[in-house]
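Handoff note, outgoing to incoming analyst
You'll be picking up this chain. Sequence as last confirmed:
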Amino acid sequence: MNYRRLGRSGLKVSEIAYGSWLTFANQVELDLAEKIIDKAVELGINYIDTADVYAIGAAETLLGKILPRLNRRQLVIATKAFWPMSDSPTDQGLSRKHVFDSLYGSLDRLNISYVDIFYCHRYDEETPLEETVEAIDDLIRQGKALYWGTSEWSAEQITAAFNICQSRGFHTPIVNQPNYSLIVRGIEKQILPTCEALGMGTANFSPLGQGVLTGKYSGGKIPAGSRGSDDSLNMYMKDSIANMDLLERVDKLKDIASEYEATIAQIAIAWILRNPGISSVIAGASSIDQLESNVKASGIKLSEKHILQINALFPAE
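Most recent structure output, in case you need it:
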């Protein structure tokens, strides 16, 4: 496993992170979760990503049954706040109250005393940005979070938060967590360059397009037991599975992958890691085999010829 600094901070994270979205408390319960996390740590993954809203707290609770027996000093644990946790108007958004309640709730469920990274899961149009960043700074000064970041914020929103923090002497964000893959390249125009200019790292989610970039849906087939076969989990990938042109382009990655003795999924992740602005790729896994396959993408160095071929198959948006 290779490691990269998270932006200009001193924090080093594994190139491959483990993400619990749509896996923990959905496809993965305690016995398998323990095996996956143990194997992830064994393989060198030090960054584990979750959020309060994943399975409405159940993903954090599941992880909280595992973390106490691991070496906390060697782990980077991240969680997030924004999405509603109940019908209460105070139990959502990025108000000072919800930011505090959310993080303290996450710490209880995770069974830890602090998180390494606390993300604003989305931008809150209804809360003054100054209120949000001041609340986060207070939590950092309390030692409840060590760093903070944004997720799915625009370049303008990230810049505004950074400037407020600098002017007020608050801790600036060190990382952004966007959706980024061969089939979702929107951050390349403004968001990624903005983060690099501000010294922020990028830890992207959905590097395999919810599994579309593994090649398992070739020809539009939907394997039994796959995420695409589960209506409660496939809401973000239905259009991709039905897009035969996209699936045919994914199939064309096989020839490139064969030259590296790799899988299509590993090439898709290696393509992301070719970018020095990327600090870590957050990939979920519902089995040990998937986890081990994802980790093997760390260290694959794509040639310029193959990068050009891949870009031609999946042009920038």
